[in-house]
Every structure is written in structure tokens, then in C-alpha cells.
Write a structure and sequence with these properties.
Structural class: alpha+beta
Number of strands: 43
Strand order of the largest sheet: 36-40-41-39-38-37
Shape: elongated
Oligomer: single chain
Bound molecules: 2-acetamido-2-deoxy-beta-D-glucopyranose
CATH class of the largest domain: Mainly Alpha
CATH superfamily of the largest domain: Transferase(Phosphotransferase) domain 1
CATH topology of the largest domain: Transferase(Phosphotransferase), domain 1
Distance between the termini: 105 Å
Number of domains: 5
Length: 828
């Protein structure tokens, strides 16, 4: 034994020799461990470690596991849990197999080492159980196939994973240590500091016998100490080990030899257990009683999946698919739903608390969290698994979609424990008596009141004021014509006149300022009108104007919207230059472009019924006090079934010239792509501050959008941009992006135009934008291309003529207006 091998081989061989020296007893092929016999065991030479069947910790009586133990604490486990009939056998083929019974031939688990030359097994005093060949070479070992624990002298490299239930722990090539749930959600990701990071080649993690979690790599001059056990370097025969627990936390434990089964937590990777994803199962809410995390359900709408084990999560008493259209959002204060990567990127949005609630209610989402920490973030959870956390210290508010009614938990349940049942009975009696008395009084008084006032006109007004309370809950309120007449002081203050009727400012009974739209020429019946109101009011998005209520009385059809302080976009884009106060810098314009696109995307792609707006123009883009865009008038041009455009022949063309896609005039199907066209024109106007159909000397007597494309081709971006922006801080890269996007949107062929969702991505800069081809209509010098049919032609030629007339910019306005009226006249 006293030869010295050449230097590179010295260390591994030394370990091999030491191991061999310690493991005096070989376990021959054919040996068997019996679950039924507690004396059936394979110990290490000095008895520190043992391989045997033991009762599975924290489980029902009768379940056993074949485990390698220290102090009766399992540090490695062979296969799943079994019963007392099972055996662990080192088969003559060299395979180590867990069999359900001594005579069985189909293993529950095996080491997959059959016929590779295994001649014996052995267990050393470091806790490594090995299968080796006749020249003592290790062919398989428990150190190389860890389950949930590593012990000193064992290590983890990038190819080894600790796992426990749905949780797993891994070291990555970058040296990052991660904890994952179900191989996807990363709820712990700890990296090296940047100096070490880039050079890592083959990181290896191990736990030193003294209690240090250590990372080594060929590129490090010395190993990095990542964590210290709190009993670090204390004397005694102590085993310290790193274990991924079934609760998803990674911990260092220590256990003194001989103190049967006692183990103490000395370090934990996740300090706040409630932040472990899925700790309380699906829909479970984690919180702390005194110092322990406890699991409960969000509300009485839920029940525990397993009443004996609250960690198994909660299930709904009524499934969402069993109550379509009757969903409600249950509000949970001081709670959040955990959101980690990779969910993080797709589930995080910027919006306030109410939009966070409403967007979840109307979408495919099942729960949402509004972080009230000043970040303005909202998580919309759309997966089928959510993990909650409740603590008085959490500033977030969360919402869970449930079948109405939402039934919050009674807060008392856990506090009551100490109170004697007799006292409780008395308390209940008092409560019941008081409640019955109160109820009786209310009924009597309510009856009297109704009797006195039932014929009074005031009654109606009062009832709708009560209905106003509902307005906060998102349902549309029905107003009487009289109320709205009063609220608008007899339709006095006109805010504007849209395509569907005039809009007036009003103050509702609860002092909310609102915009009241008096619809004109609506020939629909009451029922259909109500159905459309219901659709509009169920369409909630941060970038859509919210419908508060409606009025349908006789011939009167009115809609009540939230009031937007900064009126509509056209006031800012096309205001004359003297009104310098009404000027928007680039940052605001870009935000408006993006938020408008988001609102339209929601209409097209994200809400339950696809809505084509049909009249997108600056006049219909309203601005709130922070200059966020909110699209208005959606849903008024009727709900469009993408496959069915018959409605257009039923009602007149409502859209506005300049923003109408060519297919309107060509009598082709109207789809969401028609809105994309209109949006493209608006986007161009946001950049340029000029109407897309403006014709002037400066635009070479061409339509502005046409001229702009020519300038774009020449690379003259500055010529397109609003002169008021030049000289101010302007992100030229964003400007060019916006210009390119606008030309993509106004392509003549609907199929060439991007979907609205893609427009958002292009504006956000997450997508590369190809150079847009010439919008066909532009090259031909008419507002639409070749596919014009019959009756439209005369209108178009009128328009084309008016464009050909050289005129100053103010005069051209008139020409265009005349042209437009004739165009619409011909169409309708
Ligand atoms: C068993 O052997 C290991 C390794 O040699 C040693 O660290 C440990 O102290 C020994 N235990 C006893 C009780 O001798
Ligand atoms: C044992 O395995 C080692 C490594 O795989 C191999 O080099 C050696 O030849 C094997 N010995 C026998 C007797 O098969
Ligand atoms: C991990 O596995 C890959 C592929 O099996 C192998 O190329 C690599 O050498 C392994 N790394 C370590 C540290 O064992
Ligand atoms: C875990 O992931 C798998 C596949 O990704 C999925 O089928 C399964 O439902 C997930 N488990 C839970 C509890 O969500
Ligand atoms: C590694 O961890 C750090 C945090 O410690 C994190 O910022 C980084 O993104 C992680 N890297 C990877 C590849 O996950
Ligand atoms: C580690 O390096 C990678 C690429 O080399 C880098 O992306 C990452 O941000 C770095 N991580 C840290 C924590 O510096
Ligand atoms: C980063 O790691 C190096 C060792 O690789 C260490 O010397 C240095 O102090 C660490 N820096 C910080 C900020 O932790
Ligand atoms: C807190 O919960 C733990 C675990 O469920 C329990 O053992 C403990 O008694 C509870 N403490 C209190 C004060 O309720």
C-alpha cells in the first residue's frame, strides 16, 4: 500500500484508500433488508450511519421508508414510502432494488446498476453507501445520487439536485443557488457578487463538518463561505447537514451523536417561510400565529382540501365554471399573492387598486394583488395555482375571483379558543336577541316609510341615490332623465360633440363629476340598448373610459361616463401655437401613444367579447389628470363579431374621415385591423402635431400622411416631428419607432397591419421593427387603393380633387371639410 502514484492521481486515490480502510464490512450480492424486521440493518463500521427501514417521519402509522440514517434522522432515502412487507435487496445482477414484497420482481425503485460489474456494497463512516466492483472502484453511490440532504464530504455540482415533494434545490453554472417550486417558479435565487460571477467554471457546493456552507470553483483562489451554521465550530460529536425540507426551505441542521432523533435548525435560506411559493398549497394563505407559519383559506367561499393538513391548500365550494357571469372579487387586506420569475414578467402591470380588481374580474385571471407600496404595480394571476401571504405588515391588497357572494372569513375563529362555551352561548343569545329586535324595527319603519312615500316622486330619486352606492362596485347605475337633467343643470355645459351625440358636464348626487352623453339617432329597442350598456360597463381597463351609468327612458338614451380632467387629445395636438400652455412634451406623447394602444389591445384581444371600436381619433382619446390616455366611445358602434360585418349595412358609417380604413369605403369586412389603421393615423398625429389629412404648401400639396412617408424614406425624421418638440428633450429612438409603427398600421392591406398587441410591443421596444413598406394608398395618391367599388368612387374623386387644389393651410381645412361631408353623404 505504500507506493506513491504520480501527483494528479494522489488525492482521489488517497480518499479511495481511506474509504476502503474505514469500510471494513462488505455487503455481498443477494443480501436483503426486511421492513418487517427492525433488527435488519446495514450499519457503518463505527455505527454512525445505518441503512434500514424506518417509520416515515410526519406520516400516518404503518408507512415505512428505506433510509440511510444518522441518529434515526434520514439523510438519504431509497424510493417511495412502503409498507412492512417491502424489502431492499442487492440483487445478484448488481442492482439495488426496493421491492414491494420479498417474492416480487418488479421494483418500486432501483439503482439501475444491473450487469455493470457490481460485486458488493458497503457503507462508510461518512454516510456514503457505495456499490463497487471487485477492484473496489465505486460504480454508484448515495453521495452521487442525493435525495434531499447532503452531509460533510458529500457535495453538489451542477448535475445534482436536491428535491423534496414539488420543491428542488440546484446550483447553476453561474454559481447561483436556486430553490424552485414544481421545476418552474424560482422563489429563491442567490448569486455570487459580481467579481466572482463571470469566471465560474464548475461550481461545487459542500457543507464543512464545522458547519460552513462553502462554494468552490477552479477559478477561485480560495473557496467562498456562503453561510455559517449558528453552532459553527462548536465542540462535540455533531453532524451538520444541509437539507431541503418538505416545506420548501433549505436548512442547515445539527444533531449530536446519540441524542436520538434530535435535530436543531441552525440556518435557513428563506428567512420568511411564508415567502416559499406554494407553502400553503393552492389558494392557501400563509400567515404567522406567534412565530409559526400557519395556513388558512381566503374566505368561507373555500374549504381545506384536507382538514387534517392545512398545507394541502384550499378548494372552492363552488367552482368558477359553475357560476358564469356571477363572479365577484373577494377583497383581502394586507395580503399578497406571491409572484416570482418566470411568472413575474407576464403577470405584472402598472395600475391602481380598483383597475387591478376590475381587470381581474373581467379577464381570465383568478386573483390579483395591488401592491400599495408606491410602486403602482398590480399582479394579475392567471395560472391555475396561487400562493397567498397575509400579514398586517404587508401593504398590498389582494382580490380573489369567487362565485358571488364573497363570504369573508369570520375573524374570530382562532381568538375564541380560550373563552368558555357557556360565555359564548350567552354572547350568542345577546347577539341574536339584539339582531332580531333591530330587524323588526327596520321592517316596521321601512314599511311605514314606503307606505308614506310610495306615491311621492322623491321615492325614485332616493332609490337611485341608493343605487349610486353601487357605482363604486362597478355595476352600471340606472339614472332617470330628470336626474341627469338636474345633474347637468339642464344640459348647460357642453363638453363636446362626438359622433354619437353631444356631451355635457354634470355633477351627480354623490358629488362625482361626470360626462353625460346624449345619444342621437339610436333606434335600438330598450332591451338591446341595455344589453350593450351591460357589455360596455363590463369592459374595464385602466386605459378605457369607465361607464358609470345610463338612462333609457322613452326616446332618451344617455350614457354617464367618468369625467376626464384634461379633455381630449385633439385639444393638445392641434391647438394653435399661441396657446403654449396646451403643449405636451415627448414623454407625455409617448405615454399617451402607448396607453392608448394598451386600451385598444384590451378591446381587441383581452376582453371577453371582441370589440371593434370603429371610431378611433384624437377626439375619442381622453386624458386623465396624469395625462394617461383613456379611450372613449367604445362599444357604441355595436359589438362586432369578427366574422359578421352585416351590421354596417344596417346602420350608417359612423367613423370619421381621415381615420377610416380603406375597407370602410371599399365595402370590405371591418375587423379589428380597421381600428389599427385609425390608430396608426392618430400615432402619426401624436408625433407630428398635424392632422393626417392636412394639405398645405409645406406638405407639397399632398396629404400630410402621404408626404410624411416620403420624408421618412428620405430619412428626414425631423421634418415629420412636431416643431414644438424640437429643441426639447426628445428620445429620438422612440420617435423613429413611433413613426415606423404608424406606417405599419396604415398599410392599405389589413393583413399587412400588425395586431394591436404587437403594436404595444413594438412601441415598448421589445420587438424589432422592420422598415415599413409604403402604405399603398399613399403611393397612388388617393386615400384608398384599387379596390374601390361603385358608389364610393364619386365621393373619392371629389375628395381627390379637393386635395389637388393648391391652398394655404387654413383654406385647405375648408376644402377638406366640404370634401368630407360629401364623402360621408355618399356613403350613408
Ligand atoms: C466514526 O468514524 C468517523 C469517520 O472516521 C468519525 O468522524 C467519527 O468520529 C466516528 N464516530 C465514532 C463514534 O467513533
Ligand atoms: C472496476 O471499474 C473500474 C472503473 O470503471 C475499471 O477500471 C476496472 O477495470 C473495473 N474492475 C473490474 C475487475 O472490472
Ligand atoms: C454534468 O453533465 C454533463 C452532461 O452529462 C457533463 O458534460 C458534465 O461534465 C457534468 N458536470 C459535472 C460537474 O459532473
Ligand atoms: C406542475 O407542473 C406540471 C407541468 O408543468 C403541471 O402539469 C402540474 O399541474 C403542476 N403542478 C401543480 C400543482 O400546479
Ligand atoms: C443570480 O442571483 C442574483 C441575485 O443574487 C440575481 O441578480 C441574478 O439575476 C441571478 N442570476 C441568474 C442567472 O439567475
Ligand atoms: C453574472 O454574469 C452574468 C453574465 O456574465 C450577468 O448577466 C449577471 O448579471 C451577473 N450576475 C451578477 C450578480 O453580477
Ligand atoms: C465578493 O467576493 C470576493 C471573493 O470572490 C470578496 O473578496 C469580496 O469581498 C466580495 N464582495 C462583496 C461586496 O461581498
Ligand atoms: C401556532 O401554530 C403552531 C403550528 O400550527 C402551533 O403548534 C402553535 O400552538 C400555534 N401557536 C398559537 C399561539 O396558537
Amino acid at each position: 500500500m505504500k507506493f506513491l502514484p504520480p501527483p494528479p492521481l494522489r488525492l482521489p486515490l488517497l480518499i479511495l484508500l481511506l474509504t476502503a480502510a474505514a469500510s471494513a464490512v462488505d455487503i455481498p450480492l443477494g443480501s436483503t433488508l426486511y421492513a418487517s424486521d427492525s433488527n435488519s440493518r446495514w450499519p457503518s463500521p463505527n455505527n454512525t450511519f445505518t441503512l434500514a427501514f424506518i417509520p416515515e417521519p410526519n406520516s400516518a402509522a404503518g408507512t415505512l421508508i428505506a433510509a440511510l440514517t444518522y441518529n434515526n434522522i434520514p439523510i438519504w432515502t431509497a424510493g417511495p414510502s412502503t409498507t412492512s412487507s417491502a424489502v431492499l435487496r442487492l440483487l445478484t445482477s448488481g442492482d439495488l432494488a426496493l421491492l414491494p414484497s420479498p417474492t416480487s420482481t418488479t421494483p418500486l425503485w432501483s439503482s439501475s446498476t444491473a450487469n455493470i460489474g457490481v460485486s458488493a456494497a458497503s457503507l462508510d463512516d461518512y454516510g456514503n453507501f457505495v456499490l463497487k466492483n471487485s477492484s473496489d472502484a465505486v460504480l454508484w453511490s448515495t453521495f452521487d445520487h442525493p435525495t434531499d440532504t447532503i452531509v460533510p464530504t458529500q457535495n453538489l455540482n451542477v448535475n445534482r439536485t436536491l428535491s423534496s415533494g414539488l420543491y428542488s434545490f440546484k446550483i447553476h453554472q453561474t454559481g447561483n443557488l436556486t430553490l424552485r417550486w414544481n421545476n418552474s417558479i424560482v422563489y429563491y435565487n442567490s448569486g455570487l457578487n459580481s467579481t466572482a460571477n463571470s469566471t465560474v467554471r464548475n461550481p461545487i457546493l459542500d457543507i464543512q463538518a464545522v458547519g460552513i456552507l462553502r462554494l468552490s470553483d477552479p477559478s477561485f483562489s480560495s473557496p467562498l463561505d456562503l453561510a455559517y451554521s449558528s453552532d459553527y465550530a462548536e465542540e462535540g460529536n455533531i453532524l451538520r447537514f444541509l437539507k431541503l425540507d418538505s416545506d420548501g426551505n433549505l436548512r442547515i441542521y445539527s444533531s449530536t451523536l446519540g441524542s436520538s432523533g434530535v435535530q436543531n435548525i441552525r440556518w435557513a435560506a428563506v428567512t420568511d417561510q411564508c415567502q416559499v411559493y406554494g407553502y400553503c398549497g393552492n389558494m392557501g394563505i400563509c400567515s404567522y400565529n406567534d412565530s409559526y407559519p400557519v395556513c388558512s383559506c381566503p374566505s368561507e367561499n373555500f374549504e381545506l382540501v384536507d382538514p387534517r393538513d392545512s398545507r394541502r391548500g384550499c378548494r372552492r365550494r363552488v367552482e368558477l365554471q359553475d357560476c358564469p357571469g356571477r363572479e365577484a372579487m373577494l377583497q383581502l387586506e394586507h395580503s399578497r399573492f406571491l409572484t416570482y420569475s418566470p411568472e413575474l414578467s407576464s403577470q405584472v402591470f402598472f395600475m391602481g387598486t380598483q383597475p387591478c380588481r376590475l381587470n381581474c374580474l373581467s379577464g381570465p385571471c383568478i386573483a390579483s394583488t395591488s401592491l400599495s407600496d408606491g410602486s403602482g404595480l398590480c399582479y394579475l394571476k392567471s395560472g391555475n395555482f396561487v400562493s397567498g401571504y397575509h400579514s398586517p405588515a404587508i401593504p398590498s391588497t389582494s382580490f380573489v375571483k369567487v362565485c358571488a357572494p364573497a363570504m369573508p372569513n369570520r375573524a374570530v375563529s382562532s381568538v375564541n379558543n380560550g373563552i368558555t362555551s357557556r360565555w359564548r352561548l350567552t354572547a350568542w343569545l345577546v347577539v341574536v336577541v339584539v339582531a332580531v329586535t333591530l330587524l323588526g324595527l327596520i321592517i316596521v319603519e321601512g314599511g311605514l316609510w314606503w307606505w308614506c312615500f310610495r306615491n311621492s316622486p322623491k321615492f325614485g330619486a332616493l332609490s337611485s341615490q341608493y343605487a349610486l352606492l353601487e357605482y363604486a362596485s362597478g355595476a352600471p347605475v340606472q339614472f332617470s332623465y330628470k336626474e341627469l337633467h338636474k345633474a347637468t343643470k339642464g344640459f348647460k355645459e357642453k363638453l363636446g360633440a362626438g359622433g354619437f351625440g353631444a356631451v355635457y358636464k354634470g355633477v351627480l348626487a354623490n358629488r362625482t363629476v361626470a360626462a353625460v352623453k346624449q345619444l342621437e339617432g339610436i333606434e335600438q329597442g330598450e332591451k338591446q340598448f341595455r344589453m350593450e350598456v351591460a357589455t360596455i360597463s363590463s369592459t374595464h381597463h385602466l386605459n378605457l373610459v369607465r361607464l358609470i351609468g345610463f338612462c333609457s327612458e322613452g326616446k332618451h338614451r344617455l350614457l354617464v361616463y367618468e369625467f376626464m380632467k384634461n379633455s381630449s387629445l385633439d385639444n393638445f395636438l392641434f391647438s394653435s401655437e399661441e396657446q403654449s400652455g396646451k403643449h405636451l412634451n415627448w414623454e407625455y406623447r409617448y405615454n399617451i401613444a402607448l396607453t392608448t394602444a394598451r386600451g385598444i389591445t384590451y378591446l381587441h384581444e383581452e376582453c371577453r367579447d371582441c370589440i371593434v371600436h370603429c371610431d378611433i381619433k384624437p377626439e375619442n382619446i381622453l386624458l386623465d389628470e396624469n395625462y394617461n390616455a383613456k379611450v372613449s366611445d367604445f362599444g357604441l358602434a355595436k359589438l362586432v363579431n369578427p366574422k359578421d360585418h352585416r351590421y354596417r349595412t344596417l346602420t350608417s358609417v359612423r367613423g370619421t374621415r381621415g381615420y377610416l380604413a380603406p375597407e370602410w369605403i371599399a365595402n370590405l369586412p371591418i375587423t379589428s385591423k380597421s381600428d389599427v389603421y385609425s390608430y396608426g393615423m392618430v400615432l402619426l398625429e401624436i408625433v407630428s402635431g398635424r392632422r393626417n389629412f392636412e394639405v398645405s404648401e409645406k406638405t407639397n400639396h399632398k396629404k400630410f400622411s402621404l408626404w410624411a412617408y416620403e420624408e421618412f424614406e428620405k430619412g428626414n425624421f425631423e421634418g415629420i416631428v412636431d416643431r414644438r418638440l424640437i429643441g426639447n428633450e426628445m428620445n429620438m429612438e422612440q420617435v423613429i419607432r413611433a413613426i415606423k409603427v404608424s406606417f405599419w398600421c396604415i398599410q392599405e392591406q389589413p393583413s399587412q397591419r400588425p395586431m394591436m398587441g404587437k403594436v404595444v410591443q413594438m412601441l415598448e421596444g421589445v420587438m424589432v421593427i422592420d422598415r415599413p413598406p409604403a402604405p399603398k394608398a399613399v403611393t397612388e395618391g388617393s386615400i384608398c387603393g384599387t379596390s374601390i367599388t361603385g358608389s364610393s368612387i364619386s365621393a373619392l374623386s371629389t375628395f381627390a380633387t379637393s386635395m389637388a387644389v393648391p391652398s394655404s393651410s387654413s383654406a385647405s381645412g375648408k376644402h377638406v371639410d366640404r370634401a368630407s361631408s360629401s364623402l360621408l353623404h355618399e356613403e350613408t
